[in-house]
Amino acid sequence: MLKVVPGEAALVFREHEECTILISDLHLGLEKEMAKKGFRIPPYSNKIMDRINSLAERYRANRIIVLGDVKHSIGKVEDIDWNVIPWFFETLLDVFASVEVVPGNHDGGIRPLLPSRVKVHPSDGMVIGTDEKVGVTHGHSWPSQEVISCGKMVMGHSHFRYEMRDRFGGRSKEAVWLFAEYDVDRLLSKAGHKGEMGRGVGELIVMPPFNNLVGGQAINAKGGFDFGPVLSSGTIDIVDADIFLLDGTRV
What we know:
Helix content is about 20%, strand content about 25%. It has about 250 residues and is of the alpha/beta class. Helix 4 links the parallel strand 8 (about 135) and strand 9. Helix 2 (about 45-60) packs parallel to helix 3 (about 80-95). The chain starts with a strand and ends in a 6-residue tail after the last strand. The mean pLDDT is about 90.
């Protein structure tokens, strides 16, 4: 069974004796970019690890899957990546029996940074579960045929925010969950996959970023929804989609 963690950018998937935590968009090393812009903050990876530890204890989880964008740097490995990522994943291996990564668009060159016991999946995603199957992927590229076809798909990447304005013109943006239906056959076709038709309607869940410091686009702004191949494919039922803040407020 797949459930949203109240107040957190995380999902829990429980099946038989296994409990899996799903999170996305850690963007470890973001502090370096912020420092270049004049923002000095303590190492944020410690706070992220504390939250993960809390989730592991609360749900007695024995498996964690990170759905991409483990690191913040793109196209190269920074010195901060070598300082943070090996320690971060060694610590995860002390907490969870299984630690897995589905790479995102920020994760080029990440394999040498990860301990050998961390399982790295293909970037087009994977399917978890046997009784209830869930496809998980990052969202920056087309998911595999198996991920789309299982009828329930989870991804990150979009960093969606909901922009709110008060009567004085003040604005604020809050991270949100997106729940929508998708046409399985049309999405398979858009992604270039071929096979039997008639798979019907699937459920899509777009996760908020686990790193609270990363920015994001307003989903309620013009063009804000079209982010990544899946969401811009025209196969998602945008009109009837549900959008929730982390505290469960439906917007």
